[in-house]
Amino acid sequence: MELYVLIILAIAVFCGFFIQSLVGFAGSMVALPILLFAVKLPDAIAYVSIFYLFSSSYLVYREWRNIDKDTIVRLTLASLIGVVLGIVVLTYSKPSILQTGLGVFILLYVGYVLLGKKELVLSKKANWTFGMMGGFFSGVFSTGGPLYVISVKNTVKEAKTFRATMIGVLALITLIRIPALSISGALNLQHFQMSLVVLPVFILAQFLGIKFFPKINEVQFKRILLCILSLSGLALIF
């Protein structure tokens, strides 16, 4: 059974964190559905959080000068509140209805972007709300990325800056989530031990994602972004 979990973990980590390093988010969206073939939701969240810690440590250092710091500061308090609430829900309830709701919301947003004549513009209050919702779903499912995409996209337009800022936002979430998961008991030493075994797979995924990013232009980046959001929404629903 442990070998099966390791194989699924390796596949999930490679797929998820190749995408994560390529576009700056969606690692958990890709990895989580794969992990659920082998482990329960709290364990899957624990594994994804550990690899986000590994990923964020390197990518924030690499992309620091491209990160929009004002956006990170603006989202900090909202994210902190959201993550804590999300982990409470993860620990003490069965949040499958919320998972489906998030999936439907993401698909509606993609539809709006593709069919809407005007780009969605958020007020300061709405931006704060999206930050808290992103933190909440990051705490419950480790899948708050699409909500942060909507928020960050309102203030950051260039693909390079957007990607770097998303990396910074998710690094912030990871720093909040790891201690909260440990305190709740959802994250333990065995999770770290299993993660270290598949660390070489993670490093390869990071390397390939970083290597391919410069080959993508702005139009392709937007298409990839919407495609990933669509697949993420469907994965959360089904």
UniProtKB/TrEMBL annotation:
The keyword Membrane is assigned to this record: yes
GO CC, one annotated term: plasma membrane
Database matches in Pfam families: TauE
Keyword presence, Transmembrane: yes
Chain ranges passing through the membrane: 7-38, 44-61, 73-91, 97-115, 127-150, 162-180, 192-213
UniProt xrefs under InterPro entries: TM_pro_TauE-like, TSUP
Primary location: membrane
Subcellular localization(s) per the UniProt record: Cell membrane
Superkingdom of source: Bacteria
Keywords associated with the record: Cell membrane, Membrane, Transmembrane, Transmembrane helix, Transport
Topology relative to the membrane: Multi-pass membrane protein
Protein family (similarity comment): Belongs to the 4-toluene sulfonate uptake permease (TSUP) (TC 2.A.102) family.
UniProt-recorded name of the protein: Probable membrane transporter protein
Organism: Psychroflexus aurantiacus
